[in-house]
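Objective 1.3, modelling of assemblies. Example input:
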Amino acid sequence: MKKARLFRGLAAVMAFLLLVTVAGSTIMFENSGMINQALNISTSTLVNTGEDTGANTLVYPNEYGTDIANKQTALMVEMAAAAENVTQAEEGAVLLTNSGGALPLSETDRVTVFGNGSYNSKYNKKKDASTVDAIPTMTFNAAMQKVFGEDNVNLALAENVYKDLTATTNKEVVEAPLSDITPYEASWKNDYNDAAVVVLTRWGSEDGETAMYAADGSRYLGLQTNEKDLLGYLRGLKGSVFEKLIVVINADQMMELGWLDEYGVDACVLAGIPGTQGFEGVANILAGRVSPSGHLVDTYAANSLSAPATVYAADNTPTWGNADAVTAACTDNNSGGDQINYYTIYAEGIYVGYKYYETRYEDAVLGRGNASGSAGSSTGSGWSYGDEVVFTFGHGLSYTTFDQELLGVSYNADTDNYEVQVKVTNTGSAAGRSVVQVYAQTPYGDYEKENGVEKSAVQVVGFEKTGTLQPGESATVTAEVRRYMLASYDSKGAAGYILSAGDYYLAIGDDAHDALNNILAAKGYTTADGMDCDGDAAKTHAWNQAGLDAESYKMSRYDAGVEVTNQFDFADLNHYGVDFTYLSRSDWEGTYPAAVQVVDATEEMMAELDTDWYETPADAPAVSDFTQGSDVTLTFATMKDVAWEDDEVWNQFIDQLTVADMLSLVADSNGSAAIERVAMPSAARGDDGVCIQQGSLKATGQSGMSWVSEVMTARTWNTERFEARGHMLGVEAAFCELNELWYGGGNVHRTPFGGRNMQYYSEDGNFGYIVGAHEAKAMQEVGIIYGIKHFALNDQEAHRESLSTFATEQTIRENYLRAFEGAFCEGGALGTMTGFNRIGLQYAATCKSLLTSVLKTEWAFKGHVTTDAFTASSLYKTHYLEELVAGIDYTCWDSSNITSAIQAAIDGGDGYILQCLRRAAKYNVYAASRSVSVNGLSSSSVVVTITPWWQTTLVAAAGVFAVLTVACAACYAVLAVKGGRRRD
Amino acid sequence: MSKLNLKGRGPGALLSLGCAALGVVCLAAYCVYGAVFDYFDTGVCIALLLAAACAGVYALAEGKPLGALNLVSAACLSFALGLFFLNSFPVWADNLNGITMYASRGGLAPVVAIAAVMLACILAEIVSCFLSRGKGDAK
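Predicted structure (tokens):
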């Protein structure tokens, strides 16, 4: 090959390599945080000068120390997490039925395992396998063998049939046909037949809303054909072959379980989604090593579509009637995409889950509100509670029985709490733990009807779990009830929270229905009035409030200088002139959302969808009004002791930061860069609460434990377990060198189909409030920011991007914000992530009412707020200035777009944007200074930025390729010219 | 004077001609893809157009100064591929994660197909750079 052509070819190769390297580097630098965490790279280090030797700089210790690079210590952390997961499963699995004491089995029983879910089980979010080598996944079958003995568990079907099947998805239930099963019946005909244990699975996931219907048109959450065949087959063998038929539900989507009696199921256990260790706890329950003490935190309806919330949700999510016009008119239309066209209406109002079924039940008993009409009835005839509900909120059995005696209720003015004293006695023959569940009923009178204030017949307001009680043993527990939870949001009359005039009831009960029956009994009703069971009036405490109280909660509980008032009028469709009626117990028949009301977006609505509302205020300060980059006198470490209210010192600190420094905090790539000038270390953030991802244990490079689902923890009804989860996940995060965990979360199981129900607490706002308060507190105590997500009303995965979400202010506050409020206001959570959805028509990350008026003002939140994952191709997420002004403090996974926009605005002289940036800097620094980021920092510490090796390599490679490209091209040019001259 | 002529063209010119043809196909495919899924990027389009033109002129025209056009073509194609890859990041991210988070439009198939054709063009043009253009090419 001639020289000139050789160099021309080499120049082409080098140019190709250069451009590929540049393109790849662009993406890699944009996602550097994720890459650094995958490669286990720290991007800053501390250098202590020793000037203040002896000072205790370990602000956030944990029991495992700070040597996060030590493999043995990391393994101890993971082993502790594994043990906690087993405990969580033991307390969080729910015994739904247990006819004739079918459970527990004997540990010497020989059993056969059925159901594809037994082999292709669901563990949690994405981690179907253990991420910790030394702690392998405890599969359901392995757990059964561990507890019952390897030889006592017949796994013929797993080994021969299920291993060839795929797992159930959120759209398709995978179960073997009976014809594949019966060929192996010899293995259980004469042996392994003390019990048939059937595992059934359902699924949902991120961006994977659970289907309402299966491919054959049947309801997905109901039994599918192959499952029916299997259960029918086993029912036929019961008595002749199998002594017992046990069903285990491996799902957090609320399956339809009205068939248990029909198929002769002796006992049913809700195992939920138990992570990679929890099946051991479930097996322990089956064998009686522990008595179940979990209770439902959702309603299990006979018909998964019978709740009014399903009308506008999941697969039923409607599009605008004039969708084409919306796409054409709106600039946020995702380049002609359809994401802007979906909306959901919380037409059910506050009546989600048990609040719907129980309230309608009470009204049916009382004969009011047309509750017995056919609207919403699954049978097509008059609505009846017995037709609709299989297991209600709070339901859960034990291997023993308990008697609960209400000793008294007192009000503590100092805490603004009621204290409900209950004596619990184990009246059975096995040891066990009991949960005292406290429910409230508040008045629903003329004022409420006139002002559209809805009231649930019962709502959970407190609970307390006993320790293990031996047979005959008693204990007295006190359940705290926040009086605040008895208040209702009145958006029309008082424009604030009210305590209604009339009769109040606090009731204990085995579940929500039992508590309501007790309340009805206190009102004098019996089965003769249509109740399905007589209640016990002695388990209630009642009082009367003479007049309406609109003052007690007129001012914020968290900042007495802030008045609580309407903030979400725009989220109600009626605000835009659309005539829409939300469900009201004043007329069930007339207000039930029988069919989707198709809404045409008006021009005003389309304008709001475009989110272009920011204009520099007339009274905006000038950029020159602020000082940036002043001499450093305060380091990051010193700010950990500076109170939020000390504006002078905070301003002094922020004056030290340059605009670039502050912008580095607004950017995110699974963390933020170090700011050397003020000795602020880099921060790394991970995701999420069911298994730490985008982060890995520094000692091993592996992800954290794959946890039992959040809802399984909630089902323990045990604040100790909530705190243990928050604590252990916090410790894991610390060993992953994170300072924040984006943690699901506070969204609500509005329907059984929510794809991420497994990550969220429950169907109830008050319950979520309590879980979040304890989890957040425990995680923050070990210095990990509890970044609860997805704030707010992001309760479905279907069409989650840009989904417009309409609801009344009462609904928003009492159901959906309440589930977050506990984490922020009692748990001290210092982080939150907004949702992909819109509040009304406003993108959650640009919703000033949500982020500033409520979160940062009314709730006095002092942490930082991030968007959900950013992408510039989702146009509705690109309103950077609106996001900053609304209250966003950093943008998840955006390291350049928002910072460029802010920089441009400041360069253009917009002092208001600079003011907002300073405000965001305060929130960012405040949150970080209350995290493990301050561990090891003294006032004399120096932070040194480390450039990751891969970045150096890429830059060097690009440089080398550039030089070689030029050199080869130059050589070619010289040789070509020379060759030409010779020819000439 | 330069003139368009295939007579006496070497393997480098022929390969470049093929590359030019493939480049035109690629350009057309990209334009359709960009229009359907609204991922049209003028930068990619111009780069592909330039690449095809340079490759074609290199193959068909004579003249000493034109001997570097296949190198220019290879560079333009590389630039187009790099930019196309950057622009299609949401599609890769959504599809490989199996979720909708990057507002991607269209599946991976058209992206992979167009990228594959671009890559084939680049490789052909790089090989062409090593080969003789025929009469008048550099030694």
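Residues 153 and 385 of chain A are 40 Å apart (CA to CA).
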